[in-house]
User: Fold these one by one.
Assistant:
Number 1:
Amino acid sequence: EALHTFLNDGRIPIHNNRSERELRREAVGRKNWLFSHTPSGARASAAIYSLIETAKANGLSPYEYLQFVFETLPTLGEDDDLDTLLPWRWKETLPV
């Protein structure tokens, strides 16, 4: 039944070409990333790549977004909500 969802909602594309295209860089670079040296290094790389692609998908400049994250992250306290750093939340704070 889930495969028929796109038939009921015209906003849902019948293909996932955009997602596939966005992941192409990762697939092409995979052999270079085999040498991340440690599992934690590989996880860190994956997190950064994920943030960059999510920023792009939300119409943000990855450079400006990451600059914001890296400047803001050290100033957050233990009780602060990290969700405020997510691309779609940051986008809401930008002037129109």
Number 2:
Amino acid sequence: MAKNPVYIVHCIDTEGPLHESVDVTFERLRAIFHLELEPSVDLLRRLQAGKVDLGGLEAAVQKVVDPHLLAYNDTWDKVDAMLADLMRESFRMQVRDSAGAGWIYNWFCVDHVDYDMNPRRRDIGYHNIFEHYRGLIRENGSSQDGLHFHYHPHSFRREAHRCATHWWSSSDSLHQILSRRVIDHHWFPAAHRPGFHVIRPDSHWFLEQHIPFDFSSQAMVDNGVDGAQFGLLGGRFGDWRRAPAMWEPYHPSADDYQIPGNCRRWIARCLNVGTRYRLLNEQDVRQAFKEAAEGKPVILAITNHDFRNMGPDINAVRELLQRVANDFPDVPFLFCEAVTAMRSALNLAPLPPCELELKIQRVNDSTHVLKVHSTTPTFGPQPWLALRTVEGTYHFDNFDIDTPFHQWQYVFDEETFPLTAVNAIGVAANNAFGTTTVAVMDPPTAKISRQHWNLPRSSARASLNSLPCPL
């Protein structure tokens, strides 16, 4: 009898082009290792060869300045040239999974917005990266690939190349991005990956309200290598020191996202490939197959960036999978879209989409009430509420909750906006199965456009006995 499958989920932190000069590379070495080195191409080459005495840091520095890591796709032309190769059927099918299918990509798209400085030439603007990849998926007929959400918290200095941990400290970009995505594209995420691998109480509680599937955890057994890089120990940035170093997704605790508890969303472990730390290795892959053989629900998720050539990373992972799979002939492995993997591995019960029925009730000339109802419970206690004014500004607000998970209202008056000042109302919610509903109303006509995302896919791949990975 076949064991549980290992679901392979490739999560790409999809950020578009990135530029890095030699001077900036040395700035990063100063930040990571506290090394004061005079920038030059010659010194960089010697560091890459391990020919500079750094008091024991030589190997760790070599990892950071590896030529593959510094070969950035710094224009969209370079990104697209890479994608033209990687999205070909011939590349996807170089290694087939246990159902005979090829590699699947999950594009977790960020919006680079609301920055004052952009020295690394990121593509600044709402929807730019999302629209680029949505277009590529359509052009390539790559419906098996996933389109998801990635967010970068802003540093206090609002510099696009800096890391931060707080989602609301210096910008309202999170609410702007999602509200615009709801109204402009009738889209809302069911799966998420965090910028800089960072979750903190604010983002933990935010996700718990809206997004059921979270590919965040970078829990690892200490390998004694990453600690040479400043900031990787002591919990700075991606803090997963207490999280379970297993491939089985878990519900987090309300007060500690790293500890299994009674929250609603699922957190999956997701290790790096093609970068400088928390790297997936053969032992991690063997652990995934062993856990699946024991009957555990296993999602082996990996992550890298589109601003580097992902081909070598994918090939390295596929080689690992083939080598380890040979030792576990009864354990299938399946390349999978992120939402589908969570549903299948955890054997989640299907639910109908949330209906999100919208009605406007007039109280008087200056006061109107939006009533929203869903028979199917929403994932969190309230849907997302997005507003666009006639002046073209976007806003997020809370509902008044009549019945948690089912019924809400919102009052348009002088305390919020008069209804005449609003030209679009967007309401979005997931159910616990990860099916997304977006309803957008045109207030003057009360016409509603409604779309459902992440509906259960065809079960064609499930024809292989005991492989419950529907597409």
Number 3:
Amino acid sequence: YMQFNCGGTSSLLDGLANTSHQVKKVIVASSRAIYGEGKYFCKTHGVGYPEKRKADQLSSGNFEVVCPICQGQVELMATDEDSKIQPESIYGITKSTQEQMVLVSCQSLGISAVALRYQNVYGPGQSLSNPYTGILSIFSTRILNGNGINIFRGMCRVF
């Protein structure tokens, strides 16, 4: 992730800063992964951003997200552009870094820039047998093989 998301983007931005070009706009393919768990609502504490779930919690089958203050129940909210950025994976960290590199550098170079934060991407030619190509390929493969899919409030666990 570092090599391509950060290193490759750094090379692109270096070229934009140090060579003659006709580039007027840069679009960076960012990711929903920059938000971590996302946004939730606690009846006592309002809008909040839960902490990363612990391994022992997940391995015991407890997929519930709780309020980080009172440990009470929370309701999932839509994760919008104003939501807190708190990536919980190396991938999410590199996508957040990549996005900021493009937005900050392009602003200083006078180039328009935008980041699109994709959730699940699927397209022609995508492998249905590679689990790293996204949840849609995992779901479709499980369905084709007659296996079930369990979904827990925005988090998926395939059994």
